[in-house]
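[step 3/7] fold_predict: job queued, chain A
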Amino acid sequence: MLSIVDLIEAGTMTREVTAYSLAAIGNGASFMVGALPSGAGKTTVMGALLNFLPSNVPLAAANSEAVIEAGLTDRTQRRCYVCHEIGAGSYYAYLWDEPLRRYFELPTAGHMLATNLHADTFAQAYSQVCDKNGVPSAHFRRMNLLFFLAVDRRSNGVQRRIVSVWESDGRSDHRQVFDGTKPAKLFDSRLVSGDALQAAAGTVERLMSAGVRQIHEVRAMLTAEEP
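[step 4/7] structure written:
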């Protein structure tokens, strides 16, 4: 699996967006990665971002209604529940309809969420989650970060890029905080303070200069730097 170092070097994520993501997810933000085409790299990006979880937050696969219901009643251990994809079908850890609505309730029990879906824009993601599946807007706001990927096909290969990021503090509606069109710009965040962003940027620079690349090496270095 590719690490965040690989994604930065490939141009999929900028260092600034990486630092922002590290600060937010490291502080408990739930996140979603969207792109319409299959093979765009949603799962790869999600896997790299999962490295940013606090070290005391274990992963749990949201692969059944029983697992989700247990999470809703168990507040003794904060977990990050991973839904492989928001979608209909009897595939591993795919969620739709009532199981998806219950999944979006997990943050009320103190848990984090991480998932993918086929959507290129915030409007498409909102329509799929809230309009088609009936997830209340108040619950959707607790999906704090939404990353959207674009795939550019070029003569020398394929370029995958994060082209927009949306955030919510869980109370306010989502707002765009990153626009990957030229020139790429990270806007002021309500989720990540300036000091936290600066500290995370320093961590990213140390990570890039340390020579680590494997995903387990990145995880070890990040957890070693936790306060």
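[step 5/7] annotate
The longest strand covers residues 157-167.
The domain at 4-224 is CATH 3.40.50.300 (Rossmann fold).
exit 0
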